[in-house]
Design a protein that fits this description.
single chain; about 100 residues; 4 helices
Length: about 100
């Protein structure tokens, strides 16, 4: 009886490929958000962790940096990298939905 419930519960959820795609999108968005938070709180740009996150966030931001020319550099990072985070969540969410 327990086995039957396990299969029934599993059938209602997302498929494994859909969960993987959604997880990757969430990870990419998290990297973007961490980078934005480091900029907002004025993290030391010479720090190894900051450079590591920056090296991941910049390529993941795709075409968004510079999309909106904003004079305030902190606001520009918030808007451009924030849009990249939303982009990753939306696109991978749509792909995950298609994989179900």
């Amino acid at each position: 009886m327990t086995t039957h419930r396990w299969y029934a519960a599993r059938g209602r959820g997302r498929s494994t490929p859909a969960r993987i795609v959604a997880g990757i999108g969430a990870l990419f968005a998290l990297i973007e958000v961490v980078y934005v938070l480091l900029i907002i709180f004025g993290a030391n740009a010479a720090n190894g962790f900051f450079r590591f996150i920056q090296s991941l966030a910049e390529p993941l931001a795709l075409f968004f940096p510079g999309l909106f020319p904003i004079a305030n550099q902190t606001l520009a990072v918030i808007v451009n990298y924030g849009l990249a985070a939303v982009f990753w969540l939306v696109v991978t969410g749509l792909v995950a939905r298609a994989l179900r």
